[in-house]
Task: structure prediction
Amino acid sequence: MNKAEKNVQRDYKKGYPSPSLQRLPLYLRQLKLYQREGVEKASCTRIAQDLGLISVQVRKDLSMTGIAGRPKVGYNIDELISRIESFLGWDKQRKAVLVGAGALGGAILGYAGFVEHGLSICAAFDVDENKIGTSIRSCPVYSLDELERFVEQNQIVIGIITVPQSVAQFVTDKMVKAGIRAIWNYSPVRLSVPSNVVCETVQLSSSFAVLSSKVKSMLAEERKTGPA
Amino acid sequence: MNKAEKNVQRDYKKGYPSPSLQRLPLYLRQLKLYQREGVEKASCTRIAQDLGLISVQVRKDLSMTGIAGRPKVGYNIDELISRIESFLGWDKQRKAVLVGAGALGGAILGYAGFVEHGLSICAAFDVDENKIGTSIRSCPVYSLDELERFVEQNQIVIGIITVPQSVAQFVTDKMVKAGIRAIWNYSPVRLSVPSNVVCETVQLSSSFAVLSSKVKSMLAEERKTGPA
Result:
């Protein structure tokens, strides 16, 4: 086994499967919908049905949080919400900075949903003189030269990267040097980080690959059988 | 088995597992990197190593495209690239429209990578009088009232939704009525579409859930053993 495979295996042992983790926000949204409707309990079967999933998968995903549903009764919705939020650490606030105050950076600063997940973006950084000193959606924009000082003084854990891919590794190295421990990468490039820093890349192309495959299957099916 | 579960099962039968589909763009990027470096063949083991995956998984994912690697030699890189692109339909251009010409819409229009995937965004639509008649990254912005006519006249297949979640279903219904067959949804809401329309939702929160879980595990580990 090579070193990369060893690392992956260690992650598998320590961590949880990404597809299951990725579904937790879907459950959370559905559970909060039930909550607003005044529903107090929900079974795996109902959650699965409302989200278009299979109930065995739902039970398995939710068991990561340590909760057990009661047969014939289901989960207590308030408890399940707080279990998921605590499991993800979304019940606490985590401070973040964002580097790259362009269109994508602005979209992320404007995305209200992240506040609910405990993400507090304290400042944005850019190299564009026209942006430095302004604020975007009430978030101040500073010069990239200020990053290290700001991260240290404010004990920032998370760095969000929304710069062009040509400078993404440069910004990553700057973040790591400043003491950032977790990088949320929106640039379409694989970043190198030391082993004491975690990194997660948002793959917009991955979602488009799923859509593309669905479109292709649908159109191929229709050529065979005529439109639905 | 209820109706939702039946639908899921039908999709499973027809389609490919999403996690595998989601990895195809990663392979494609890595393979194009090899190509630029003048590498002609690559084994599963090497691809797995360079992407931090396990080789069994790589072989399984790539077998979706119908390619078979040769033992001790690996895949021919040019062939593998064209297999993946053709599997996803990325070797052909697909015309799309985008509704919601705000910060997120602008970021997507500016994302050059999608052109490589055959995605051609022909027009954006909005209700904001200040945006209608302008263009964003050389894409014209029209009034939402024009959507139906434009989609029909230009035989648009894909609709991209970058509006606030409160109006996302309204825009979806308008797209479906206009004849859109595939919806790529960036709003954090589950959309209802008829069975002859496919829909894929980009879950930014899902990626943040994975990052959050990694951060939490890392910090918990350090509290036990001290920093790495």
